[in-house]
Amino acid sequence: MSAPVVRFAPSPTGRIHIGNARTALLNYLFAKSRGGTFILRYDDTDTERSRPEFSAAIAEDLAWLGLVPDRVEHQSARLPRYEAAADALRAAGRLYPAFETADELERRRRRQMARGLPPVYDRAALALGPDEIAAFEVEGRRPHWRFRLDGRRVEWLDGVRGAQTIDTASLSDPVLVREDGTFLYTLTSVVDDVEMGVTDIVRGEDHVTNTAVQIEIFEALGGAVPRFAHHNLIASTTGEALSKRLGSLSIGSLREAGYEPMTVAAIAVLTGSSEEIRAYPDLAALAPHADLAAVSRSTARFDPHELDAINAHLLHGLSHSDAAPRLAALDADLGPAFWEAVRDNLGRLGDAVAWAAVVRGPIEAANDPEDRPFLAAAAALLPPEPWEDTTWGSWTAAIKAATGRKGRALFHPLRLALTGRDEGPEMKRLLPLIGRRNTSDRLS
């Protein structure tokens, strides 16, 4: 098989969410694991809703996830290509004008349903004569343009769903050009896929019915029909479909909340598949598990709590050299020993800021006043520096011998005094970082 060409075609009308990221990642990993091409193509023909700032935000979100497109296209720059395609379909008798208003179509649908008939467009416009068309034009009506379907069984082998068959006789002839002359995605995507050499279309299962229609359009335009794969959609745990309205699940909001890009990538790709949802260090490691054949036919349920577990696991395996530039940006890079001490207690990288503050001090202690004599005794037993990992053990052993305390009664007051917290990283690692002077001050 030749190297695939795929595309991710978002509408820049809002921020993309984890469901959109699923489609983008599946396309990217499918192409890159096979030496192929990934096209980012903005579906921005809706001039009222599309915004440049949303295009920029989508590019930023994809870059954060590690997706670098090989080619970027804007449908708004390709309008002459769509007009030429529409003219070709008109000349072939496949695109015909229809003058019904939305209200007229709705009334017709209701009548059909009342009679127990499917609400499929009856092609009344095909019977219009020149005089009738002229009369509509005198009224000031402008036509929308419908694609005349063949009304046949369209079959394809879906990369996720297997053998698929849709009888286009059960579908309404789709509108490809609106009354105002603007184009619907059904046409523009096919024109672009043909001219950009797209070989594989990986998208959500909500486009399955569109596929039969688009295969007929591909064939009518004389283009090669790509392979199709329709993955399941991601829904919330309550079953609500994700949308751009759910800002908390946007890629931008997840990034701002401190999640790692590979956390989001793993959840987006592996949710709703037979693959285990686990952390991977990079996209190259994730790619072999982005298997379309492993994608379930059932709706994928997204549990936000899984983000925390995967994110923590990723951080716990992150080396100091990889973390250092980001820690430095947070003013929390206190060196490899600090990172080794705190990383297993981090849920998000930003949590390191609080532990850096604990090491640097000052802190607000929260000890019981009754522990003051015990802490004074501990201060008197502080060994001289230099301190290392064994210092905590030898020091607490000396305190135990002197005070008779053991277990929680020994260790908990010391942790509270030195860190201001009930729990956290191992004290044997933190103590050398805090140092003798800070330790002495906090025990007094």
From TrEMBL:
Domain named Aminoacyl-tRNA synthetase class I anticodon-binding: residues: 366-443
Record keywords, A-Z: Aminoacyl-tRNA synthetase, ATP-binding, Cytoplasm, Ligase, Nucleotide-binding, Protein biosynthesis
Positions contributing to ATP binding: 244
Compartment(s) of residence: Cytoplasm
Main localization category: cytoplasm
Database matches in SUPFAM superfamilies: An anticodon-binding domain of class I aminoacyl-tRNA synthetases, Nucleotidylyl transferase
All copies of domain Glutamyl/glutaminyl-tRNA synthetase class Ib catalytic, residue ranges: 5-308
Main EC class the enzyme belongs to: ligase
Coiled coil ranges: none
Ranges that cross the membrane: none
One GO BP annotation of this record: glutamyl-tRNA aminoacylation
InterPro entries reported for this sequence: aa-tRNA-synth_I_cd-bd (IPR045462), aa-tRNA-synth_I_codon-bd_sub2 (IPR020751), aa-tRNA-synth_I_CS (IPR001412), aa_tRNA-synth_I_cd-bd_sf (IPR008925), Glu-tRNA-ligase_bac/mito (IPR004527), Glu/Gln-tRNA-synth (IPR000924), Glu/Gln-tRNA-synth_Ib_cat-dom (IPR020058), GluQ/Sye (IPR049940)
Locus of motif 'HIGH' region: 10-20
Cellular component GO terms, alphabetical: cytoplasm
Highest taxon listed in the record's lineage: Bacteria
The enzyme's E.C. designation: 6.1.1.17
Catalytic activity: tRNA(Glu) + L-glutamate + ATP = L-glutamyl-tRNA(Glu) + AMP + diphosphate
Location of the motif 'KMSKS' region: 241-245
Molecular-function GO terms, alphabetical: ATP binding; glutamate-tRNA ligase activity; tRNA binding
Family assignment from sequence similarity: Belongs to the class-I aminoacyl-tRNA synthetase family. Glutamate--tRNA ligase type 1 subfamily.
Subunit relationships: Monomer.
Job of this protein: Catalyzes the attachment of glutamate to tRNA(Glu) in a two-step reaction: glutamate is first activated by ATP to form Glu-AMP and then transferred to the acceptor end of tRNA(Glu).
HAMAP family for this protein: Glu_tRNA_synth_type1
This protein's name: Glutamate--tRNA ligase
Organism: Siculibacillus lacustris
